[in-house]
Amino acid sequence: MRALLCVSACVVAIAVGTGSASAQTASEAPSPVIERVSPDSQDGDRQATGAEQDIVVTATRREERIQDVPLSITAFSQEQLSEKGIVGFEGIARETPGVVLNRPTQNFNNFTARGIATNGYNANLQSSVAVYIDELPISTIGNTTVVDPNLFDVERVEFLRGPQGTLFGSGSLSGAMRILNKSPNLASFDASALADIGLTGSDSLRQRYNLMVNVPLVTDKLAIRGVGFYRNEDGYLDNVGTGVRNSNKLVDWGGRLVALWRPNDRLSIKLLGSYEDSDPKDSSLTSPSLGREKRVSDQPDRFTGKQTVFNATLDYEFDFARLTSSSTYSDFDQRFWLDLAGTFPAQPAFPGAPIAFGLDANAYDKVFVQETRLVSSLDGPLQFTLGGFYLHRRRDVDYFYRSSLPFLQARRLTGLPDQYYQKQYTHSISEELAGFGELTYRFSDKFWLTGGMRYGRTSAQAFTEAGGYLASAFGQNYFTYALLNIPVNFNTFTPYAAVEGIKATGSKPSWKASASFKPSETLTTYATFATGFRAPIVNAFAGRPSLVTPSDIIIPDGADSDDLKSYEVGAKARFLGGLVTINAAAYLIDWSNIQAQANRVSDSVQFATNIGGARSKGFEVEMGIIPGRDVFIGFNAAYNDSKITRLSPTEAAISGAVLGHRLSAPRLQGALFTSYGFDIGEETKATLAINAQYVGSYNSSFPNTPGAPNVRLVTFGETDEYVNTNFSFGLKRRAFSAQLYVENVFDDHSVTYIHPEAFLVSRFGTLRPRTIGIRLGYGL
């Protein structure tokens, strides 16, 4: 892998140095079939074209050739997603250089881009990569559920690397991922379907069904498009605590309905409604010490989500610009239930430990987002984008801390109305209001400058609601009697009073400046400076002492915004009429006042704080080669070096960080994809494809214990270095297709994620075992 990286870097250097290469930007995903995808083509039509044509994206909120956009973008069409079997976040991350998905289990995802991460969990911290479904930001703080979106019938997926604060706000510290659904086809009836039946291991059946129907109600004026999906996937882990075999089963279903009305050439109105119910029956985190594919918890760990989205988008074409108004309302209910027994490991002084201890948190999000923007359509040298953005989110969270009924009965702990000894009701309100704009001036067809700025104000405030209770007896709480194995009747239930937390506010600009130089039609180069930040964080339990050790850290109010400055240079080149493409970028990132997660030692309560600074530097390469008819070879690779560069002793003590420590990102990663197509008869096409992804090992967290800076964190570790290999053989005849596939061909069981906190006994995420299956498609 290191040799391949060196060779690729040399090839790129030669191509850029001679100027003979042609290019697409430092991130266009190479494909044997380059597609032109236009947002103005509201009917969703796509034209498969030859290698000479370009991918068009809307990463800058305007339709542009990807090779002219001065930033790193990887784009996936629906055809590419289907061909590679990508149905969710995992596949996107493995095919995008410089990006890692920290995914302990279904519906629990945190992207890391270019090394900007202190650990893979981000508890209480806003994600550093913003994730959008159309105009709705769905990324949130690290210890909340995010439903894995269904990637069927999408126009494309765009992954923008580097800070995107100018156009995508405070959550896009190191990147933004956009999932763009297809709009209705106004001209003709259309339908497509995809069924995927697979077998994981010897007895875990995987079923995935997708259907799309498009119906024009008034030709060229009004159409509707409906999508439905259902997934029923048996688990592959046995929970030795609950006694359930294949416990991490997933049932996920939902759909969306989109209506598009275009009364004239200038005006279009799109209405969308979608619903998804994702219900994993248990976590996918394992305990390797128990054996392969084993986990343990006293009750199933649940990370479920039900999300309803309504959107109305209006587009109006003026003579000089396009006006877009997008209004979105989202309702999201989630369960965050997990066993915390690992907080108290077995000790000789406490026979029978660990005790029954868990958290059942139920959260309810209501989000409203309004974005209005005006994008020029002038033919002259000046182009502009102007807009405003508003977000209001109310999140209600009910914290229910539990024992278990069998444990209470065995220890003769009585008096509780159920298994919960503590209940607390909270809610928080966060808002973001911003104005943004970008200007591009083309001095000639070969040279242009772009400048952008976003000024936003964010606020967040947490509230404890009156009610709930903390159960105790003789002034002592549940932990005392449970750990010491002392029978007692809990006879005191102290209610919580209403408390209004401190309102955290922040306002600062995000900047972007870039220069692009295109010496020929086959080569584009650029240099970009951009800034990013995350909104201030309020700690839900600010001011609360530890119930276990009152002398431990008092939870602080929260964390201020962090700051990030990114410097990037890139080139996008194309050889031989598009038969060879090379996209490369190098970057240097300074990250200061870092928002970091800390954990109180005595009771594992999480809180957000700020620490010194870090630096990330690296490069990314993507290559695509078409050596012959129906043959394609694609390769991408990334190198990253990110580490803590500034840290005070106080910051080290509270966070567990160490000066010079590498952040939670692999130093090396890459992917190789090759396909060969051949004819079988007159109308049947066969394709043989192999896809392999390499990810280097990386740190799970900071190495020391927060609050005890000279004590090594017992949960600290490094993920495995691994290669995941997939194989497929497909046939296509007219509108019908069939594909036989093998995922994880070598049945690799590498550890891809390590949870950084001790409260989980099962803390390791692994590759899904070898899965063999068939996909049957129509109209794809």
Structure description:
This is TonB-dependent receptor. Belongs to the TonB-dependent receptor family. Strand 8 and strand 9 form a beta hairpin. The protein has one domain: TonB-dependent receptor, beta-barrel domain (Maltoporin, Chain A). The protein is 7% helix and 54% strand. 51% of the residues are buried. The N terminus is likely disordered. It has a 22-stranded antiparallel beta barrel. It has a five-stranded mixed beta sheet with strand order 5-10-11-8-9. A two-stranded antiparallel ribbon has the order 1-2. The protein is globular and about 80 Å long.
Give a short synopsis of this structure.
Keywords: Cell outer membrane, Ion transport, Iron, Iron transport, Membrane, Receptor, Signal, TonB box, Transmembrane, Transmembrane beta strand, Transport. This protein is mainly β.
State the separation between the terminal residues, measured CA to CA.
34 Å
CATH overall fold name: Maltoporin, Chain A
Number of separate domains: 1
CATH architecture: Beta Barrel
Q: Helicity, in percent? A: under 10%
Task: Name the CATH superfamily classification.
Answer: TonB-dependent receptor, beta-barrel domain
CATH class: Mainly Beta
The count of DSSP E runs of length 2 or more, i.e. the number of strands, is 47
Poorly predicted residue ranges: 1-52
Question: How many alpha or pi helices?
Answer: 7
Shape: globular
Roughly what is the average pLDDT, rounded to an integer? 86
Largest sheet: 22 strands, antiparallel, barrel
- Computed CA radius of gyration, to the nearest angstrom: 26 Å
Share of residues in strands:
over 45%
Q: How does the helix and strand content classify structurally? A: mainly beta
Membrane topology: Multi-pass membrane protein
Keywords: Cell outer membrane, Ion transport, Iron, Iron transport, Membrane, Receptor, Signal, TonB box, Transmembrane, Transmembrane beta strand, Transport
Protein name: TonB-dependent receptor
InterPro entries: Beta-barrel_TonB, Beta-barrel_TonB_sf, Plug_dom, TonB-dep_rcpt-like
